[in-house]
Amino acid sequence: xxxxxxxxxxxxxxxxxxxxxxxxxxxxxxxxxxxxxxxxxxxxxxxxxxxxxxxxxxxxxxxxxxxxxxxxxxxxxxxxxxxxxxxxxxxxxxxxxxxxxxxxxxxxxxxxxxxxxxxxxxxxxxxxxxxxxxxxxxxxxxxxxxxxxxxxxxxxxxxxxxxxxxxxxxxxxxxxxxxxxxxxxxxxxxxxxxxxxxxxxxxxxxxxxxxxxxxxxxxxxxxxxxxxxxxxxxxxxxxxxxxxxxxxxxxxxxxxxxxxxxxxxxxxxxxxxxxxxxxxxxxxxxxxxxxxxxxxxxxxxxxxxxxxxxxxxxxxxxxxxxxxxxxxxxxxxxxxxxxxxxxxxxxxxxxxxxxxxxxxxxxxxxxxxxxxxxxxxxxxxxxxxxxxxxxxxxxxxxxxxxxxxxxxxxxxxxxxxxxxxxxxxxxxxxxxxxx
Length: 435
Known about the structure:
There is one protein chain. 45% of the residues are buried. A 6-stranded mixed beta sheet has the order 4-3-2-1-5-6, sandwiched between helices. The protein contains 11 helices and 16 strands. It is of the alpha+beta class.
């Protein structure tokens, strides 16, 4: 028998409520991946209700009537649907949420049918077949965009927000033009979505901690494998395989950098052979149930030189100083002021040095709000709140001209201060397979 189209009434979740039952004096859980009946782990329906409440609250404050999203992280946040990382760069799935209604999702027809069968938190008639340009691959005929714009306008009118501005995150230009052609005022909706995603509830924090625990284990295997004669690409293969074995749903990128490639930082990997005395830098970017890690570690292979140790000590000092300031009520410009200047690491401007010493929000997206750096935070400071999650990154080149230290910690802002969840040891420079 077909399921009724009416979705169940959601529980009322306060948008600023992380979890009234969570005890901040205890560590965040890092449970196994299976659900069990003898302890509460991740409550996915609570997670959906919370994310939807946060989005509605941000929408109410934005002056927008609705949010039309093509960003896959925003779609997952509001609809709790996903069809895999394949869709990440296609711009063909989209969702709509008005201030007065429930989420709509447009997907490949077969995926929309799957949602109607297995996503009872959505209305049946809100899961629809849709297809736009697939980044231009469909061709220059604008019929698909025109029909989609008319369908969206009809929903906006039916839900009483047809005369209000529409928030949009990312889009193919023909879709934007068709929305404007039929009289819709389009504004930036990404800021409203990022505002919604700033503060994580206990389920999001648990998923982030579980994802981090997976990387803890991978770094142990990297440390054991990191010997002369191993290629950078072999470490990438090892880490990628282990992450998928442990349950990762996307290994987005792994930086693997060694020897003379460490300075300047190239943010990629090659087939370079690792040699005795090299420094080796890794960044593991992957997700578990959508929630991402950004987690750097630096090793010296076999032995470490004095310049390598000095650079690492500076990077660690900068790291610890920044983390100590991550507290609810702190303003992001004060943290930015504590970060090293571009000139401290040999760069002529903060733009040239961006991405080496900064903090960025972490969640479904790799870079979420707040993003704290000397480039942007003095102009637009943001007050930190309990439940925010940061990746704190520091980088210091060594005086030998080739080595460098790169450290990154994943940090949850608890009610009383920071909680580090990236636990592979990094207080001192790790030496892999010492001689």
